[in-house]
Specification:
Layout lengths: L2 E3 L1 H8 L3 H8 L3 H8 L8 H11 L3 H4 E3 L9
Antiparallel strand pairs: 1-2
Length: 74
């Protein structure tokens, strides 16, 4: 998928565990792991907003586009 998820980078910068983030955001650790590992097909804006609030970051700090397989024009 051309969208990469950098939650692990922000977790390291904030010295926070996956479990703590999941609890503070209000999602299960399993669902956070699916998102963190890039296996999610979608993310709700409310979840993205909660992640940004807890991690004190912008959506672009968590998500980025990568050119490659599955992108237009290939």
């Amino acid at each position: 998928m051309p969208i990469a998820v950098d939650i692990d980078v922000m977790l390291a910068k904030r010295k926070m565990s996956v479990g703590e983030l999941a609890e503070r955001v209000g999602i299960t650790p399993a669902n956070l792991a699916v998102l963190k590992n890039g296996r999610a097909k979608a993310v709700r804006f409310s979840t993205l907003a909660a992640l940004c609030e807890v991690l004190e970051c912008q959506p672009g700090d968590l998500l980025r586009w990568e050119a490659g397989e599955g992108t237009r024009g290939e």
